[in-house]
Structure formats: structure tokens, C-alpha cells
Amino acid sequence: MIQARATAPETKQPRRVLRNGPLRFRPRVPGAARWGAVMEDRPLGGRGRALRRLATVLLWTALCVPLQALLLLFPGRAKARFPMAYWRGMCWLIGLKLQVVGRPAGHDGTLYVSNHTSWLDILVLGAVLETRFVSKADVASWPGIGVVAKLGRTLFVSRSRTGTGRESNEISATLKGGDSVMLFPEGTTSDGTRVLPFRSSFLSVASEAKQVQPTTVVYDRMGGLPACRRDRPVFAWYGDMETLSHAWYLLRHTGTRATVVFHEAFAPETLPNRKVMASEIGRIVSISAAQLRQNRPVEALAAPARRG
Length: 308
What we know:
The chain is of the alpha/beta class. It is built from nine helices and eight strands.
């Protein structure tokens, strides 16, 4: 009688690979192994990109400044429309893509009201709107930037008690004359993670506008991916940040994008007073800004309901 004997299959021992040193894989992102890990900051990366962008921005500005100065000497809308081309070129040169949701009111004498995160807001909003900005008087004396602001027909306000009435009359006259105006009622820039309360004092000129349109600006892409909380300082300019160092840090990055949402415009008389208007506009802007920061689909929101 023959008994079957089960035999276990032979198992081969894995062959050990003799290496003289550890494996070194080529990084997927050029420069990552040299300047830092892929998910970490690259303190020395992008310097050549920033230099190239800075040089082209200075060249573009040097070409546009004389042309805008010449247009200011002649009547017509060219002096109001050319700044849009200038700001649009600036956004393209620094690699900042623009996404627009909704449509600007498009009527003369419109008061646009927006949140304020950075000096970048001027480039972004100026590229998609034919409007005049309101800025603090100190900007007029800044080297280079002050000249560009004056040629862009910026309205400067000192925010002092002695000049408040005169400056409000100037803004009112601008709206009555058919020019649109952009206001930032937060009164300062934020860190990009929230919208500060809107101050009703900034809306004292709203009654002179034909329409008021809430506007939201959020920087929602970096490296082609949704921007997260750690990316906000790349765009947000606040506190004691220096303008040049902040711009240098921004110019080194790629794949950036700003989204502008134009909500439904409404007549100033829809709301009873400027305090209610500041609250309602702030609510609308805050809702859409939160949706963009959370990488959620966003659409233009309806105008505030009429109140007696």
C-alpha cells in the first residue's frame, strides 16, 4: 500500500539586492530635492521667475504711463478704458488668472462695494471693471505707485475730520458725472480668511449712485490647486507687511487665480439707510467669499429685498 505524502511547495528565498548606498529617486517637481520637499516652502525657488516678471511689469508700466498721461489731456472714454487694458496686462504678466462670475452692472454712476484683501485687488478689479478707485491719501506719495494711481484717476481721501465733507462731495460729484466708483468699506485689508464688518460711514455717498453692486474677490488657486489656509499670506497683504517683499513672494509662485463675483445690483433707495445697506452687502459678500474659500460652486446672489 502506497501512502501519499503531501509535500509543501518549495519556497524561494527573496534575493537580497546588494546596494552600496540608499536609493535616490528623481524628484517629480524640478528643484524639490534641492530646495526642499514638495509640500514644504521653497525659500530659494522661483527667483528667476520673479525677476523675469518684475522686469516685464516695469517695462509694461513704462510703456503705458506716457500713453495714459496723453489720454488724460483729451475728452472721451479712452482715459477710462485704457486702465483696464493696463491692469489686465499686469495680471497676465504676473501669472494671475482671472475668473468672473456674474456680470458688472455696466451703468454709469454705479457704486461697486467689495471686500479688501490685498493691493492685488486693484489689479484684479481694474482688469474687469471700468471704475475709479478710492484710496487713502498716503498712496499718492508712494514712489512709482503714486504716479500710477494718479494716472488711473484714483480718488484720494485723507479720512480726517477736516477733509471728510470735501472728499465725500468729490466722490458724489464723480458718481453724478457718470463715472463708476469702487469702495472697500472694511477700511483696511484682511488676512484673507474672513470678511471684516463693513463700515456704514463709507456708504454715505451711496445715495448719489444710480446702482449699488456687491462684489466679492477671493484668491482661490495656487499651483493650479485650491488654495488652503496656509496659502492665504501669499495673496493677503495686511498688518505690517512690506509691499515689495510681499510682491516678491507672490511673483515666485505659479498657478494663481482670483475669482470675482458680481452679485445682483440694486437701487440705493431699496434700503432705508446706510447702516442696513452695509449689513446687507457685507452678508452677501461674506457668503460668497466663504463658498470660494471652501472650494464650493459659487453664483451671483440676489439683491437685498426692498425695505421700507
